[in-house]
């Protein structure tokens, strides 16, 4: 880095100041992961399973290590929460925190499906102010800074302005989307997107109009995509309409829905009927 580290004061005053540096780091992280990915075939990276059966690859670990070092150099004052790093409760006392998923959609990565991503957010007081979701296999980088809109590969993106569920393109867990369809709301069922971060940012670009998220999503699945979606004119909330808060002792969330603002009220009502009825 050819400039001094960013200070909390700089980031609070202008979150966009750090965004280009974040993009460069995250795209380089994607290049670390790509050699182990084989489109349509199993990864060449070593794979093992964590407690609970979730897969992890040596690429996840390599990307996590790289991001820890490089993001830490960008803003040493920020804490750290990552899927692949042991949690340190010290983050809870810090106003700035990095939230990182080195490979969101590890199962997709390991099986040759292109819908995996590297997701990084920088939080201030529990909400993201800068976020990147980079999908190396698609050569796609979604980015946002608070108050500056959202982009895909540098071009502005915007959510769909649809205000009715009938005909809306919906994606999420198969059972949840099927329940929404069975409830008679007339949604168009899209294939599930394995990377939750990618699912949400595709709402931001209008490719998906209604996204469902099952319970148990983690901060690192959501935070970067949350900001990108919000800056693109949409929102992600729980079924009570409340936005997620991050960097809590347990970084786990319940069922969520995501859409443009025009559709969000109808989507919440329909999701309650379909998922809770």
Structural topology:
Blueprint: H1 8-13, H2 19-33, E1 47-49, E2 55-57, H3 58-74, E3 79-82, E4 96-104, H4 106-111, E5 117-124, E6 127-135, E7 140-145, E8 150-152, E9 155-156, E10 169-171, H5 174-182, E11 188-189, H6 196-204, E12 210-213, E13 217-218, H7 219-231, E14 234-238, E15 252-253, E16 256-260, H8 261-276
Parallel strand pairs: 3-4, 10-11, 10-12
Antiparallel strand pairs: 1-2, 4-5, 5-6, 6-7, 7-8, 8-9, 12-16, 13-15, 14-16
Task: Identify the notable features of this structure and list them briefly.
single chain; 277 residues; alpha+beta; Fructose-1,6-Bisphosphatase, Chain A, domain 1; D-Maltodextrin-Binding Protein, domain 2; 2 domains; seven-stranded mixed sheet; 8 helices
């Amino acid at each position: 880095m050819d400039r001094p580290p960013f200070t909390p004061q700089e980031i609070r005053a202008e979150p966009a100041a750090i965004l280009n540096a974040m993009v460069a780091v995250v795209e380089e992280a994607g290049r670390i992961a790509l050699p182990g990915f084989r489109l349509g075939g199993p990864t060449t990276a070593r794979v093992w399973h964590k407690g609970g059966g979730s897969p992890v690859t040596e690429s996840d670990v390599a990307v996590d290590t790289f991001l820890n070092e490089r993001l830490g150099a960008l803003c040493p004052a920020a804490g750290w929460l990552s899927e692949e790093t042991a949690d340190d409760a010290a983050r809870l006392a810090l106003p700035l925190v990095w939230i990182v998923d080195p490979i969101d959609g590890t199962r997709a990565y390991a099986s040759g499906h292109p819908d995996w991503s590297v997701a990084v957010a920088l939080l201030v007081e529990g909400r993201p102010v800068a976020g990147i979701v980079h999908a190396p296999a698609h050569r796609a980088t979604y980015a946002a800074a608070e108050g500056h809109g959202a982009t895909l590969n540098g071009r502005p993106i915007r959510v769909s302005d649809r205000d009715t569920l009938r005909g809306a393109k919906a994606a999420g867990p198969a059972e949840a989307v099927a329940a929404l369809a069975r409830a008679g709301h007339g949604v168009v069922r899209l294939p599930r997107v394995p990377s939750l971060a990618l699912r949400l940012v595709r709402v931001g670009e209008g490719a998906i109009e209604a996204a469902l998220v099952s319970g148990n999503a983690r901060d690192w699945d959501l935070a970067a995509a949350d900001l990108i979606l919000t800056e693109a004119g949409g929102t992600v909330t729980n079924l009570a309409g409340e936005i997620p808060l991050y960097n809590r002792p347990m970084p786990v969330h319940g069922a969520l829905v995501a859409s443009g603002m025009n559709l969000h009220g109808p989507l919440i009502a329909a999701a309650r009927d379909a998922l809770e009825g």
